[in-house]
Amino acid sequence: MLVGVPKEIKNQESRVGLTPASVKELTLRGHQVLVQTNAGTAIGLTDAMYLGAGASIVDTAKEVFARAEMIVKVKEPQAQECAMLHEDQILYTYLHLAPDPEQTRALMASGAVCLAYETITGANGGLPLLAPMSEVAGRMAIQAGAAHLEKSKGGMGLLLGGVPGVAPGHIAIIGAGVVGTNALQMAVGIGARVTILDKNIDRLRQLDLIYGNRVATRYSNAHSIEEAVFDADLVVGGVLVPGAAAPKLVTAAMIARMKPGAVVVDVAIDQGGCFETSHATTHEQPTYVVDGVVHYCVANMPGAVARTSTFALNNATIAHALALADKGWRRAVAANPHLKQGLNVCHGHVTYEAVAHALGYTYVDPDTLLV
Ligand SMILES: NC(=O)C1=CN([C@@H]2O[C@H](COP(=O)(O)OP(=O)(O)OC[C@H]3O[C@@H](n4cnc5c(N)ncnc54)[C@H](O)[C@@H]3O)[C@@H](O)[C@H]2O)C=CC1
Ligand SMILES: CC(=O)C(=O)O
Ligand SMILES: [Mg+2]
């Protein structure tokens, strides 16, 4: 198969869909790979490394999109990229469609076969192609929050760990999945007081066994969220209902009653965000203030540590990339129910139920398109 890797064009995004090592896996199996020039240069993955792995380098994204049978990316395609997709071309990347009607419309219009990393399931449960970026974003959430609690960044001027004689700050983490538990690890490490909330009591039970009385676990409902949020200096939002728009668990009225200069980090922003007052921001302009509360809502947090993130992402994406290249999308998807869960848009139809529900499209069972 001819596989294409364009340079990412989202704001401050230097990750790249395939590393030279991943390219080598493909070329060793007889596939061809086209990489746009300088796709990885910003993170030290040079054109020479890609050539050494057996790729061809081309000058423009236009050429990559025109020639490749499968496009491997990181971020959801931007409007100009959607316009270059063509009928039956495979697009393998993050999509986050539920809160994004324009992108969904454009992907449907393209006729392409669009597989979303974030809805591919794993044999042991979970979302293994989302997990590595959630690990990165969860860990970053605490450092981003800590930085924005500083006076010069708009925060209340608080050191999360405190100092001898001064109490530490309070971090509330909503959602105890991959983002939440990675944020928790950093929050405990920094010396803050921590509350973590989830609806999944088994998850809270596991965390209780690990952290004991170092962390307060709370069953998540409107009451416990309110209590935690009003007392917190930093709130991290890491909830997910797979494929669906994030539930708005923290209302605008709750934000208005938070401490002045508190910070919220809405990691779930790529699914629309779990704070009612959230809207997506960029690494260039990461925050804005609502009712005295600093909002950090960067939709591609791992892009800031693009080198670490690219390697972590490739570890999780390469196996399905090889299957898609070896077998073509129909056979690869038919052979693997977990990969089938990634099919969000195919030949003009929405093939992922939560996306169809969120955006008012008729859901089409992917099995009907495999024949
Ligand atoms: N902004 C960014 O750059 C990034 C954003 N993300 C996003 O972060 C979000 C979380 O991802 P993961 O941690 O991997 O998901 P996950 O599935 O591992 O965890 C989500 C957790 O939310 C919990 N949850 C669901 N409804 C809840 C409620 N009402 N109250 C409390 N908890 C609730 C679930 O029980 C689960 O434990 C996703 O939207 C993901 O796309 C991930 C990576 C980067
Ligand atoms: C998961 C995601 O949206 C990201 O890594 O940017
Ligand atoms: Mg994102």
From TrEMBL:
<feature type="binding site">
    <location>
        <position position="75"/>
    </location>
    <ligand>
        <name>substrate</name>
    </ligand>
</feature>
<dbReference type="GO" id="GO:0000286">
    <property type="term" value="F:alanine dehydrogenase activity"/>
</dbReference>
<keyword id="KW-0560">Oxidoreductase</keyword>
<dbReference type="InterPro" id="IPR007698">
    <property type="entry name" value="AlaDH/PNT_NAD(H)-bd"/>
</dbReference>
<feature type="binding site">
    <location>
        <position position="220"/>
    </location>
    <ligand>
        <name>NAD(+)</name>
    </ligand>
</feature>
<dbReference type="InterPro" id="IPR008143">
    <property type="entry name" value="Ala_DH/PNT_CS2"/>
</dbReference>
<dbReference type="GO" id="GO:0000166">
    <property type="term" value="F:nucleotide binding"/>
</dbReference>
<comment type="similarity">
    <text>Belongs to the AlaDH/PNT family.</text>
</comment>
<dbReference type="InterPro" id="IPR007886">
    <property type="entry name" value="AlaDH/PNT_N"/>
</dbReference>
<keyword id="KW-0520">NAD</keyword>
<dbReference type="GO" id="GO:0005886">
    <property type="term" value="C:plasma membrane"/>
</dbReference>
<feature type="binding site">
    <location>
        <begin position="239"/>
        <end position="240"/>
    </location>
    <ligand>
        <name>NAD(+)</name>
    </ligand>
</feature>
<feature type="binding site">
    <location>
        <begin position="267"/>
        <end position="270"/>
    </location>
    <ligand>
        <name>NAD(+)</name>
    </ligand>
</feature>
<protein>
    <recommendedName>
        <fullName>Alanine dehydrogenase</fullName>
        <ecNumber>1.4.1.1</ecNumber>
    </recommendedName>
</protein>
<feature type="binding site">
    <location>
        <position position="203"/>
    </location>
    <ligand>
        <name>NAD(+)</name>
    </ligand>
</feature>
<feature type="domain" description="Alanine dehydrogenase/pyridine nucleotide transhydrogenase N-terminal">
    <location>
        <begin position="4"/>
        <end position="137"/>
    </location>
</feature>
<feature type="binding site">
    <location>
        <position position="198"/>
    </location>
    <ligand>
        <name>NAD(+)</name>
    </ligand>
</feature>
<feature type="active site" description="Proton donor/acceptor">
    <location>
        <position position="270"/>
    </location>
</feature>
<dbReference type="Pfam" id="PF05222">
    <property type="entry name" value="AlaDh_PNT_N"/>
</dbReference>
<feature type="binding site">
    <location>
        <position position="134"/>
    </location>
    <ligand>
        <name>NAD(+)</name>
    </ligand>
</feature>
<dbReference type="InterPro" id="IPR036291">
    <property type="entry name" value="NAD(P)-bd_dom_sf"/>
</dbReference>
<dbReference type="GO" id="GO:0042853">
    <property type="term" value="P:L-alanine catabolic process"/>
</dbReference>
<dbReference type="InterPro" id="IPR008141">
    <property type="entry name" value="Ala_DH"/>
</dbReference>
<dbReference type="Pfam" id="PF01262">
    <property type="entry name" value="AlaDh_PNT_C"/>
</dbReference>
<keyword id="KW-0547">Nucleotide-binding</keyword>
<feature type="binding site">
    <location>
        <position position="15"/>
    </location>
    <ligand>
        <name>substrate</name>
    </ligand>
</feature>
<feature type="domain" description="Alanine dehydrogenase/pyridine nucleotide transhydrogenase NAD(H)-binding">
    <location>
        <begin position="149"/>
        <end position="297"/>
    </location>
</feature>
<feature type="binding site">
    <location>
        <begin position="298"/>
        <end position="301"/>
    </location>
    <ligand>
        <name>NAD(+)</name>
    </ligand>
</feature>
<feature type="active site" description="Proton donor/acceptor">
    <location>
        <position position="96"/>
    </location>
</feature>
